[in-house]
Amino acid sequence: MSLKQLIEDCKANNTKAQGELYKLFSSKLFSVCLKYSRNYAEAEDNLQDAFLTIFDKIKQYKNKGSFEGWLKRIAINTALQRYRSEKVFNITNENTIEDNEIEIDEDSYSIDYLLKIIQELPDRYRLVFNLYVLDGYSHNDIAGMLNINVGTSKSNLARARQILKKTIENHKATQRIQSL
């Protein structure tokens, strides 16, 4: 069955087609949910909520643009919805933090380690970092998605980078000490 036919069957509320769509995209969308969730259990909840929204709104998909991109946007928005009602974002003067790039020797760190330290960032920093660095959204887009101002987005990204840089530097120092 083609993806187009699967989508049409889902629009007709065919539960078998919905199950197939879930099987086809759940692992990809779970990884998206995990990036924007505090932990594994919350990511599972976000995935389920995202699929409820997908099945509820699939009739709005007009076969324009990437279907997977449409699904991903729903998954991200579902995860972010948990934070919109909470006050996880502090309004910050955008001139207070300078934006630092992080120099990483990619051979020294596994992707699992890097994802782990990103996951450990405070919510407001992790969300902005993931949206900007991992998913390529602009600060204007992030501000709209998270209901914050552009300066807050920029300062939260800078702060996330500072925390990650310090974590990596501490890890390097620990490795040097252990190798002595």
TrEMBL record:
Q: Which CDD domains match?
A: Sigma70_r4
Q: Which residues form the RNA polymerase sigma factor 70 region 4 type domain?
A: 112-162
What InterPro entries is this protein classified in?
RNA_pol_sigma-70-like, RNA_pol_sigma-70_dom, RNA_pol_sigma70_r2, RNA_pol_sigma70_r4_t2, RNA_pol_sigma_r2, RNA_pol_sigma_r3/r4-like, WH-like_DNA-bd_sf
Q: Which UniProt keywords apply?
A: Sigma factor, Transcription, Transcription regulation
Q: Which GO terms describe its biological process?
A: DNA-templated transcription initiation
Question: Would you identify the family this protein belongs to, as annotated?
Answer: Belongs to the sigma-70 factor family. ECF subfamily.
User: What is this protein's name?
Assistant: Sigma-70 family RNA polymerase sigma factor
UniProt organism field: Snuella sedimenti
